[in-house]
DNA sequence: GGCTAAGCGAGACGGTACGTCGAGTCTTGGG
DNA sequence: CCCAAGACTCGACGTACCGTCTCGCTTAGCC
């Protein structure tokens, strides 16, 4: 039995409207230029309703990430049996977000949000490369001799994602060959 | 004959005072919480003098980076003849900034600044790993057989610096063994 | 049913504090030198609260006039039965404001405010000589033969107040005989 | 022999350009909205050259008045022998300035300037009704019995000009019969 | 069914900072 | 010494949002 809460219950409609307004404004105008006031207005909601449930705009972004409203996909590593090809395909997907016009500043804005909110950073990282899926695959490949035995597994996704982010930060133009080169770099030379 | 520039010349004292105030406040309170108003007050300068020469706070950070007022060093890769050891030492230096108390949020703040200003991003990247110094060393090592022949040289520093940044973003705790593992990851297995 | 006004209601405390601060600073430092910023600070109020309800400082002065916070009195024409004496007494009162030390620049400041805001001008004029009280008295006196039959009633207060204002503008020193001479001038020769 | 002043002499061209720029901007945009900066720019002159010779913008207005650059005329009372007609004609001229489109705010702007600068007030008053010309005419008329014997001569122009100014302040619309009624009011009933 | 909470849209409140304008002063270099 | 140009410090402008706080209304469990 729930403890005796009385009164109206949280409005799901408001919650969704707020997150959708956040995602829309985030995509339109970037993380800075995002204002609680603007979100509330766009969502047709009082400011207090936002502040009642979230401490600030970075927490809103964290929730949007969690609901998959900002990144197109969960970017899970596909599993065709060929690890190297799977990683390249996945990394190409991650980098491919940069192609869309709205996606131009998307990563940069997410990085800005992550820099002031640990939860955003955590969820952003998991969205791009979920360690729970990533590491076991790599460990298995190492054990089976598919990749070299001394591969520092945990660092692989950090290096791959980190490189993508650094390039997004520096506005380095898209490079179709990049995913393959990065995977080559981290997994070591292809067995010939 | 110089073209007819007339009128008082730009005050070097003001320029320096502004950059120093920027660096001090940036270290003290981070990139957000940095305000032009606060910088001008701390520098003993009118706001207009800031706006006359810089379009906003991100441009101030870019100039501070250029003058080496934010990062302790140019983080050049040392040259002892042992490339692998040199890279590890350099990377340890880069990561070591995180040890200092003020340096806790330093990288995160720089990343925030970089996310809204391309020049900051460019200069941050060069401060950490100047490509003009970095790549030639690697190419030479590749040619001499010191590292594997198919090493994608340009991606090495991206992966290394990217990994550090990603960990800074995610507030991953310092790990003394990290530099070595990252260098192992990118340069491939040590020749035994 | 009232139309659906919702949200918090206007704070009377803030309204009064702002008008009082305006009146105090106006008396202390004059119309120019009056700043919204100063008013808000003195009233302990955000600037936005001023701008929400008044478009600028001249409108504040208009409201202060309406509330009788700037001019000591409504300067109504007394009614002792002797019109000529009443007008002289009233005009002496109006001119007497110039005696007070704070009142030195009071009229000049009010004139400055009136010159950029029609409402101030209107209310200033009514404060000094309310036409709704003034004209009927004069008309009755004309009908009863107390003053000459061709007296242009509406112009009387304009001439009287106008003369006072012109002297205030020109910093002409106070002259105790002035009210009587002006009334003589406008009402015509005393019946002997 | 002049005392030994050395160096360049004041530039008449600059002086005139400044006054002309002042008059033009004053007519275009009114007394407030008048800025030294704008005047200097319009005159093609350094700000310092303005400040070297005038203490502020009200002094510039005073000089413009003196040079007749603001008011169309000296508004001298004509002399046809018929004093009453002359006064009416003169007063109609003074009031007629209000007809011109630029003249709409001209008086109000002059009043604003006068309210913060005694010299402007003095010169404005003299421009409209020079006491040196005005009073003697009236005194002669009083002596010759043309107007009543107890007329307070000095107050006549004050009342006439004051009434005009008060109406300008209050934005009272032009009234073609006004000059005649005001003269009637001050000079007393027409001898029939 | 009435009472008491809580949530809600709205929006006023005291603040901080924004980016701009203009004030009045000072500094250059040329005449 | 004057002049045009223009950089300087400083104060105020009017605006945007912040995060908090009433309002009056609706919604829901509880007596």
What would your notes on this structure say?
4 copies of one chain form a homotetramer. Chain A has 192 residues and is mainly α. Chain A has 10 helices and no strands. In chain A, helix 6 (106-115) crosses helix 7 (118-128). The N and C termini of chain A lie far apart (65 Å). The model of chain A has no long low-confidence stretch (mean pLDDT 92). Chains in contact: A-B, C-D. The interface between A and B is large, with 43 and 42 residues. The structure holds a DNA duplex (31 and 31 nucleotides).
Summarize the helices and strands and which ones pair or pack:
The structure is a homotetramer of 192-residue chains.
Chain A: H1 12-29, H2 36-43, H3 47-53, H4 57-66, H5 83-96, H6 106-115, H7 118-128, H8 131-143, H9 153-169, H10 178-187
Helix pairs in contact in A: 1-2, 1-4, 4-7, 5-10, 6-7, 9-10
The first copy, chain A, binds a DNA duplex (31 and 31 nucleotides) through helix 2 and helix 3.
């Amino acid at each position: 039995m729930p403890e005796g809460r009385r009164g109206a219950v949280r409005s799901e409609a408001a919650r969704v409207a707020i997150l959708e307004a956040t995602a829309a404004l985030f995509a339109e105008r970037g993380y800075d230029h995002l204002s609680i006031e603007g979100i509330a207005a766009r969502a047709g909601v009082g400011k207090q309703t936002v502040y009642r449930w979230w401490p600030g705009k970075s927490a809103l972004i964290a929730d949007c990430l969690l609901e998959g409203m900002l990144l197109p996909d969960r970017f899970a590593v596909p599993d065709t049996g060929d690890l190297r090809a799977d990683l390249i395909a996945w990394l190409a997907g991650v980098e491919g977000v940069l192609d869309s016009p709205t996606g131009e500043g998307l990563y940069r804005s997410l990085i800005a949000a992550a820099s002031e909110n640990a939860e955003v950073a955590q969820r952003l990282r998991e969205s791009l490369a979920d360690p729970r899926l990533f590491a076991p695959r790599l460990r298995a490949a190492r054990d089976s001799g598919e990749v070299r035995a001394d591969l520092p597994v945990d660092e692989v996704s950090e290096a791959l994602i980190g490189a993508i982010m650094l390039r997004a930060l520096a506005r380095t133009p898209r490079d179709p060959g990049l995913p393959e080169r990065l995977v080559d770099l981290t997994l070591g030379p292809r067995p010939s």
